[in-house]
C-alpha cells in the first residue's frame, strides 16, 4: 500500500480498503449521535472529510478507528445541530423528570452532549476509554469522569421513572 504518511492511504482504492473495516462502527456512532439525521449521509460526510484530510492522519497519535470516529462524531454533531436547534436548550435542562413512562432512550436524550457521546462510544459502539478519548479529543480521565457523571444522571433519571 502506497501511503501518504504514517499509514494513511494515498489513492481511492487503498482508502476504500483502509476504511472498510471501520464502516460499521462509523454507522453505529452516526446513528447514536445524530438520530434525526440520515446515518448514511453522516458517514458519507465523514468519509469525504477523512479523504480530504488523510494526510493529517498520524498513526503515532491513534488508531485509524479512533481517527475516523472522531471525524464521524464531528460530522454527526454538525448534522444534529443543523437538524435540531433546540438541542442546546434541552441539554441545559436539569430539572427532574416526573414522567413515569421514562425509558432508557428518553433518559439518554437527557444527558449532556458530552455525556451522550461518551456513553455512545463506550457502550454502544464498543470503543475503549482510550479510543473514546481520541474521538472526543480529551484525556482518558475526562472520559472516565464523564462516564461516571452520565451513569449517575441515568441512575437518577431511571429511579424517578421506576
Automatic annotation (TrEMBL):
<comment type="similarity">
    <text>Belongs to the sigma-70 factor family. ECF subfamily.</text>
</comment>
<protein>
    <recommendedName>
        <fullName>RNA polymerase sigma factor</fullName>
    </recommendedName>
</protein>
<dbReference type="InterPro" id="IPR007627">
    <property type="entry name" value="RNA_pol_sigma70_r2"/>
</dbReference>
<keyword id="KW-0731">Sigma factor</keyword>
<dbReference type="GO" id="GO:0016987">
    <property type="term" value="F:sigma factor activity"/>
</dbReference>
<dbReference type="InterPro" id="IPR013324">
    <property type="entry name" value="RNA_pol_sigma_r3/r4-like"/>
</dbReference>
<feature type="domain" description="RNA polymerase sigma factor 70 region 4 type 2">
    <location>
        <begin position="103"/>
        <end position="154"/>
    </location>
</feature>
<dbReference type="GO" id="GO:0003677">
    <property type="term" value="F:DNA binding"/>
</dbReference>
<keyword id="KW-0804">Transcription</keyword>
<dbReference type="InterPro" id="IPR036388">
    <property type="entry name" value="WH-like_DNA-bd_sf"/>
</dbReference>
<feature type="domain" description="RNA polymerase sigma-70 region 2">
    <location>
        <begin position="19"/>
        <end position="78"/>
    </location>
</feature>
<keyword id="KW-0805">Transcription regulation</keyword>
<dbReference type="InterPro" id="IPR014284">
    <property type="entry name" value="RNA_pol_sigma-70_dom"/>
</dbReference>
<dbReference type="InterPro" id="IPR013249">
    <property type="entry name" value="RNA_pol_sigma70_r4_t2"/>
</dbReference>
<dbReference type="Pfam" id="PF08281">
    <property type="entry name" value="Sigma70_r4_2"/>
</dbReference>
<dbReference type="InterPro" id="IPR039425">
    <property type="entry name" value="RNA_pol_sigma-70-like"/>
</dbReference>
<dbReference type="Pfam" id="PF04542">
    <property type="entry name" value="Sigma70_r2"/>
</dbReference>
<dbReference type="GO" id="GO:0006352">
    <property type="term" value="P:DNA-templated transcription initiation"/>
</dbReference>
<dbReference type="InterPro" id="IPR013325">
    <property type="entry name" value="RNA_pol_sigma_r2"/>
</dbReference>
Amino acid at each position: 500500500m502506497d501511503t501518504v504518511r504514517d499509514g494513511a492511504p494515498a489513492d481511492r482504492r487503498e482508502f476504500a480498503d483502509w476504511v472498510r473495516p471501520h464502516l460499521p462502527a462509523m454507522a453505529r456512532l452516526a446513528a447514536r449521535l445524530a438520530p434525526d439525521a440520515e446515518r448514511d449521509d453522516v458517514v458519507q460526510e465523514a468519509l469525504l472529510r477523512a479523504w480530504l484530510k488523510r494526510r493529517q492522519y498520524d498513526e503515532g497519535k491513534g488508531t485509524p478507528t479512533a481517527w475516523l470516529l472522531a471525524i464521524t462524531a464531528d460530522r454527526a454533531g454538525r448534522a444534529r445541530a443543523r437538524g435540531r436547534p433546540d438541542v442546546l436548550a434541552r441539554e441545559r435542562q436539569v430539572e427532574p423528570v416526573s414522567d413515569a413512562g421514562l425509558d432508557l432512550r428518553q433518559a439518554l436524550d437527557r444527558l449532556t452532549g458530552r455525556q451522550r457521546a461518551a456513553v455512545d462510544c463506550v457502550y454502544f459502539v464498543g470503543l475503549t476509554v482510550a479510543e473514546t478519548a481520541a474521538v472526543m479529543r480529551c484525556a482518558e480521565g475526562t472520559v472516565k469522569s464523564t462516564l461516571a457523571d452520565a451513569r449517575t444522571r441515568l441512575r437518577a433519571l431511571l429511579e424517578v421513572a421506576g
